[in-house]
Amino acid sequence: MDKEDIKLGDWQRILFGDAPAIFMVEVFLRTLVVYFALLLALRFMGKRMTGQLSVAEMAVMITLGAIVSVPMQLADRGVLLGLLVLVCALLFHQGINLWQVHSRRAEKIIEGEESLLVKDGVIQIKSLEKNRISRQQLFAALRGNGIFNLGEVRRVYLEGSGLFSIYTFEKPGPGMSTLYEMDESSFDPANGDGGSFYVCDMCGFLVERDVKSECIKCTGCGNTRWIKATN
How does DSSP assign 39-79, residue by residue? Predict the structure, then answer.
């Protein structure tokens, strides 16, 4: 389109583009066909496609979005061509799933592996950095599961799908509060109800001695700042 053809008062072009108004009816019919074809494809892809998506499934969903837009909107592109590409995407997805069933290595490459974020109440700082997860995100996930003390946490895994899997102790002990990032001033070494227990304010490593006046390095992360543990 030449720039001379662009006029602010040209409502025919603004509303319908270069296509005649009757093309709107064709767009409706094209959308109807592609929509039901997409529903059928998702049905064959399985229940996982409507749940928390893995990396491979997210890639397929993005691909499907690109596939269905063209045959629905472009007058010079036939619907059958879009449906053919949709079937190819379906076969490719099913083939990837079958490959992962028979190959653990393929599953690791495509979906990734779970990562240990918390071990026995201690945050694994290097694992957070590797997975680009902040402590705020981790604490928010724990608070969302009713956990307000790292002393309750046995393990936290970040699954390949991005979900947090949280396992707790039957008898929780003292540990770092998951509210710490929200109000650090409330967790001064002079405050708290953890008795003689202190935790590293970076990773939550627990020690049973007074470290508030000592420059002691945390054996977990090397940090030297400590706060009172909470029960």
Answer: HHHHHHH-GGGGSS--HHHHHHHHHHHHHHHHHHH-TTS-H
Same domain, 136 and 91: no
Instruction: State how far the alpha carbon of 55 is from the alpha carbons of 17, 99, 194, in Å.
Output: 37, 15, 42
Instruction: Answer for the pair 205, 218: CB distance below 8 angstroms, yes or no.
Output: yes
pLDDT digits 0-9 by tens, 202-225: 999 998 876 554 567 888 888 888
Instruction: Give pTM, 2 decimals.
Output: 0.64
Return the residue matching tokens 């000592």.
Answer: 214
Tell me what the mean pLDDT of segment 35-52 comes to: 63
Q: How many CB atoms lie within 10 A of CB 115?
A: 16
- 98 and 192 in a single domain? The answer is no
Residues 89 and 184 in one domain: no
- Beta strands 153-158 and 198-200 are unpaired
Residue 129 and residue 79 share a domain: no
